[in-house]
Structure formats: structure tokens, C-alpha cells
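Researcher: Structure for this, please.
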Amino acid sequence: MKLPICVFGPAPAREGLMRERHGIKMNRVLMMIMAAGAVAGGIDRILGNKRGYGARFEEGFLFLGPTALSMAGMMCLAPVLSGVLGRVIIPFYKLIGADPGMFGSILAIDMGGYQLAGELARDPRIGSYAGIVAASIFGCTVVFTIPVGMGIIAKEDRGYFAKGIMLGLVTMPVGLLVGGVLSGISAWESLRQNLPVIALSLLLLLGLWRIPERMIRGFELFAGGIRCVITGGLVLGAVEFMCGFNPVKGMAPLEDAMEVVSSIGIVMLGSLPTAEFLKRILKKPFFILGKRIGINPAGMTGLLVGAVSVIPGLALFQDMDERGKVANSAFLVSGASLLAAHIGFTVSTEPELAGALIGAKLCGGFAAFLLALLIPAGRKMQE
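Model: Predicted structure, C-alpha cell format:
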């Protein structure tokens, strides 16, 4: 009888092979679910969008433009930036015993974090983990959720938002550790690699507590600077594509970046109808749960919507009760955009890490949500 190959060889090799096989199975299941969503959305569109899934199907493809604007330029610049930043980042991270790829987690997964982590990483496993899991939690919070949230939310509600973000940062290590273990990295190694991220989170937490307005302004300036860099990279990439020359040497071709963007758009054709289906079937159970834990319907709906996209979730903020505002803000630190942009990006780039992404964002998000329920909503947070 022929024994499976994984029976032989050292235990770490067997474990690695088993994790790889598990990741492939998870990816296949997710892709089949996404494909079913694309089929349902496409059929509904043909029939005149009678059930609303056709609109989500179209919306998935319309994401191509915003996705390209947010990440293509950084993908082009990533090799150049890694060379420049590496001179400072690599020695520092070596000094503290962490992989330089973890620096990429300061940017959102789809705003250059993945590319930067991959370019700086010395261990490809850590680079993938930093660019997918850590960037989807910490990076997304820093460069997107906080600056966008403070721009959308009414001034009188910013205290609740800041308090929720603080609670989300407190529980963020839960998601990071779960994601690390599911990525095939030990809990101790995950903790060690995330020490710079956790240290930065503590500084942000302290800043949001002591000087919230200045911190928010700092987030806005940082996000604006990232936008300028991304746009600059996109312009340079377009010039090189159209004219055949580029004043900045070492950039990746724009057409390579657009290939990744297109693959994300294809996945989004199925992920958004699937997310819409999940939102509908979970709506009633969530409302029942909301009554038991003391959060109004808008607050419970915000959780589902925020797991798809941050901006529509924050748009419901004004209709939430105080407890719901804090709980939703806390959940967004880890759980934001799980069911749409982030899972679409992951399945298109590192499909074997899809399970790690889902586990990390759900565990971190619901840990923050539970902590918010245990702490009185109270107001303040000095504004």
C-alpha cells in the first residue's frame, strides 16, 4: 500500500504540507462560493436586477477604477521605495529581531501594504503575513478607517468613534495572533514579529486618549501623503507605458499592476453578491441579538455593512445608539471590509492565506465588539 508522502520526513515539513493542503482546500471552497455569487448576480442582472444581486454584480466591476487608483501606483513604486526605505528600516528591524517586511503593515492591504511588505521581507512567509493579515487590520485602520471616519462622522459623535477605535486597538493583537497561527507562524513568532505594530498601536492609543484632535489631523496628513505618493507612481507608470521612458529607475510596469487589479475585479463580481446574500440572511438574527445586548437595529446593521465596506457602515453612524456607535467603531479596526475588498484582494494574490485573513479579522473584530459591550458607552474622549 502506498503511504502518503507526508508520513515521512521531519514533523515541521509534515505540518507545513498539511497547512498548505488546508489552504488550497479553503481557497477552492471560497472560489466556488464567489463563483456561485457571480452566477447569481449575473443572472439577476439579465433578469432586470429584480432581487438586487445584479446591482452588486455591477458594483463589483465598478470597483476596478477605485481599486486601481488606490493601489496601482504603489505597486509600481514598491521596488523603488523598498530600496530607499530599506536602508533605514532593515537595520532597525534586525536590531529588534523582527522581519523588515512587517513595516509594510503600516499601509492598508490594498494601498501598497502588500507590495511594500513583500519587497522588504527577508522571510517570504512573514512578508505575506504582514502584507495580507497585518496590513488589512493595522494599516487599514491608520490610513483609511480613522481619517475617513473623522471626515464622515458628525463632530458631536467623534468622541464615541475615537473611544471605539481605542478599544479596537486594545484587542487588535488577538486578530494578529490568530492570523499568524493560521498563516503557519507560531504564536510566539507572531507576537515577536508584531512588537513594532503593537508598540505603534499603543502610541496611537495614547495619542487618541490625550490629544485626539491633533492625532486625527496627523492621520489625515499621513493619508494625504500616501495618496500623493500613489498618484505620483500611477502617473509615472502611465508615462512609461505610453512614452517608453521613466525618470525613476527600477519601477514595476503599470500593466503588471493592472493585471492584479483586474483579477481583484473578477473576484469582486462574486464577492459582493455573496456579501449581499450573507447580509440578508444574517439581518434577522442580528436584530434579535441586538435586542438582547441593547444595541438598536442601525447599530447591528452597521456591523454587517462595515464588514463589506467602511464608508456605508459609517454612514449609518448617526442612526445608531451610543452603545452601537462605540461597538461598531471598535469592530471596524479588525473587521473592516472583510467580505469585499480585502477577501477579493487576498484570493487574487495569496489565496492560501484567505482562511488566515478571515480568522484574524473576525476574531479581532468580535473581540473588540465584546470589549465594547463590557465597557459603558459613556461619552468621552475629550474632543
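Researcher: Any notable elements?
Model: The chain has 15 helices and no strands. The chain has one domain: 22-374.
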